[in-house]
Amino acid sequence: MFNINGLIESFRIMIHIIYSYFLKSNPLKKRYKITLWLHWQIYKFLKVSLVKYYKNLSLNNLGVDSNSNVIVSLTSFPARIEVVYLSVRSILNQTQKPKKVLLWLGEEQFPLGEESLPNSLLELKPLGLEIKFCKDIKAHKKYFFAFQKYPQNLIVTVDDDVIYSRDLLKILEETHIKHPDCVVANRVRLMEMDASGFKPYRGWKINDVGDNNPSKRLFSTGVGGVLYQPKFFSKSFYDLEGIKKTKCMNDDIWLKAGQIINEVPVVYTNFYFKNFIEIPDSQAESLFSTNVFANENDRQISEIFNYFGVNQASFD
């Protein structure tokens, strides 16, 4: 007799195995043309199938763990509010559940509050999603309020435009246990310097850390998921006037300055080598091209590090 439930369960297991294989394939190793072709086919398959999977995933598979010490925090804005539920679903579907998921939304962007939010998001509230309305401080919303409201918890920040692997939190927590005095990141850049200062951000190698792990020279990028301990950051870090004065759009840079002034290194999990799959149509409005291709990151690194008194000697 044909078992439709068994078929659905088999597909569920298969897609996570394929996604895990794709993410863990190390691009630094030599690749043959057939392997590159295979990875491209897998990428195209995942780009479509992961979205379908999470759109149709039963709410019974989603949830949180009240005994967990991990809180996941993210932010979004109107252009992505219709698709952010896919990111949230991927977090509520983790093998190691978080205590809760916090979604921070700007009051100025959502003046009607929850009345303006799609049901695809609201239906996740009973399953562990908490929607918080706050002052709109752009990307900084994802950490600024959570760090201060939950100082005793581990805070994992994620982005609103990607679908995360089911073992994301498990890998971060396991690495945290091994390196309890570090910020833990799934995606990093190795900060490069010369006699004149920091080399351009675009040239910093991604996930190619050599012997620099853990290190203060590792720069965590939020898209991969980053685990923080709020106790790492001093009161001077929560400086809205400083964020405004330096025109800081990239929260990763502000967070890095806060780590350095408190002597906190970053450890790379060395588990994922590929980028997580982005949600289609989520990149219509993005800071990435402005920050990276317009060299805004270099301007912000210079101004923010100067603001905090961070220099090359700070990384010794």
Task: Give the overall silhouette.
Answer: globular
Q: What's the CATH class label of the largest domain? A: Alpha Beta
Helicity, in percent?
Answer: 25-40%
Tally of contiguous helical segments:
10
Query: The biggest beta sheet, please?
Result: 7 strands, mixed
Average predicted local confidence, pLDDT: 92
CATH architecture of the largest domain: Alpha-Beta Complex
Q: In order across it, which strands form the biggest sheet?
A: 3-2-1-4-12-6-13
The rounded Rg comes to: 20 Å
Mind explaining what this structure looks like?
The protein has helices at 4-24, 33-56, 84-92, 119-122, 141-149, 168-178, 240-245, 251-261, 288-293, 296-308, and strands at residues 70-75, 100-106, 129-134, 154-157, 162-163, 183-185, 188-190, 193-194, 197-198, 205-206, 218-220, 226-228, 266-268, 277-278. Strand 2, helix 4 (119-122) and strand 3 form a beta-alpha-beta unit. The model has no long low-confidence stretch (mean pLDDT 92). The longest helix is centred in the N-terminal third of the chain and has 24 residues, at 33-56. The protein is built from ten helices and 14 strands. It is globular, with a radius of gyration of 20 Å. With 316 residues, the protein is α/β, with parallel strands linked by helices. The strands form four sheets. A seven-stranded mixed beta sheet has the order 3-2-1-4-12-6-13, with helices on both faces. The protein folds into two domains: 4-61, no CATH class; 70-315, Spore Coat Polysaccharide Biosynthesis Protein SpsA, Chain A, CATH 3.90.550.
